[in-house]
Design goal:
It is built from 14 helices and ten strands. It is an alpha/beta fold. The longest helix is centred in the N-terminal third of the chain and has 15 residues.
Length: about 350
């Protein structure tokens, strides 16, 4: 019999039951419950360990710090390298020594001190109008060229997704070159940065812009969105270009996991983390969230594969994390969001 229990709390901060058993693991997650449900079902089927989930779209670090040693959290799931680093810096995670995880997750996508590990990968790509953009390749540098004046849309320059991209530009090109690139990109914007990545696809559909910066996984979410069929139209109006595919590679970010600092069920937590790094789990997860698996041998979904081949920038994500503050400062310096 399948034993899986979940609690999904969006607004109210209600504690999970403090009592735990040797056959369960408590998960704090910033990912939508339906995205991780297939993964946790498979884990329970394979191990007999129950899962309890508290969904926290915001305030994950603050919640863990407030609970301290009384926290019922065993494993934390979240997205973006900046958020994973924030968990470690806040002291709410602990180092995990696992030969299994190290063998499954490439060093580029895990903490050198083993406090966090990547699970899936998303690429920061260019959405391009199928109707108005004829070229099928592009570089990040090209986004700052005058030929794209008033033709590009993007979300806020201070959003963590863009900060990570800008930090990768600094790491690869240097701060001075990155500043000039940001000025050129700003000059090419069709409108003030706003909305999420789907809103940028809508801008292409409406003709407000010809190019947009967005993540690959939003393509899958829009293409399969039967509840909001207009988003399927947005997605159909654009194609995906992988910047620098023939050079250093496309900037990528991750979803990831960490063991909570005061995990009451560390053995069960480790079992879950090792399972999440396995080929089977990686393929289930990648199918659910339209992202790329990290474990060698695990395959992306057919939908993700249809976007094109991804060559990731080999830059260690810790390097990007170290440059986030510099990227944020440059965004303000050039008045990117003005």
């Amino acid at each position: 019999m399948k034993l899986t229990f979940r609690v999904a709390i969006v607004a109210a901060f209600v504690l999970l039951p403090a009592a735990t058993s040797a056959s369960e693991v408590n998960i704090y997650s910033s990912r939508q419950p339906e995205l991780i449900a297939p993964l946790l079902d498979a884990f329970s089927e394979e191990t007999g360990i129950r899962t309890r989930v508290l969904n926290l779209s915001n305030g994950l670090v603050e919640r863990l710090k407030a609970e301290g040693r009384n926290s019922p959290a065993d494993v934390v799931l979240t997205v973006d390298i900046g958020r994973l680093i924030a968990l470690k810096d806040a002291g709410v995670t602990q180092a995990v020594e696992s030969a299994v995880i190290k063998a499954n997750i490439p060093a580029q996508f895990r903490d050198t001190e083993n406090n966090w590990f990547g699970l899936t990968m998303r690429a920061r790509v260019v959405y391009a109008s199928r109707e108005r953009v004829t070229q099928n390749s592009i570089t990040y540098a090209e986004l700052a060229e005058p030929k794209w004046a008033e033709r590009i849309c993007t979300r806020s320059g201070q959003h963590p997704y863009n900060i990570a991209l800008f930090a990768s530009i600094i790491a690869n090109e240097g701060e001075e070159a990155a500043e000039q690139w940001l000025r050129g990109l700003k000059a090419n914007l069709a409108r003030s940065p706003s909305g999420n990545d789907r809103a940028q696809a809508q801008g292409i559909f409406s003709g407000e812009c010809d190019l947009a910066i967005g993540y690959t996984y939003y393509v899958g979410l829009m293409r399969t969105n039967a509840k909001n069929p207009e988003q399927q139209e947005w997605e159909a109006s654009m194609k995906v270009l992988f910047p620098d595919a023939n050079e250093r590679g496309t900037h990528v970010n991750i979803s990831g996991m960490a063991m909570a600092a005061h995990a009451p069920n560390p053995e069960e937590a480790l079992a879950l983390m090792e399972f999440l790094s396995s080929v089977r789990a990686q393929e289930i997860y990648a199918q659910s969230v339209y992202e790329y698996p990290l474990t060698p041998g695990a395959k992306p979904s057919e939908l993700v594969s249809s976007m094109g081949e991804l060559k990731p920038d080999p830059l260690p994500l810790e390097t990007i994390a170290d440059l986030r503050n510099t990227a944020s400062r440059l965004v303000d310096k050039v008045g990117f969001n003005d």
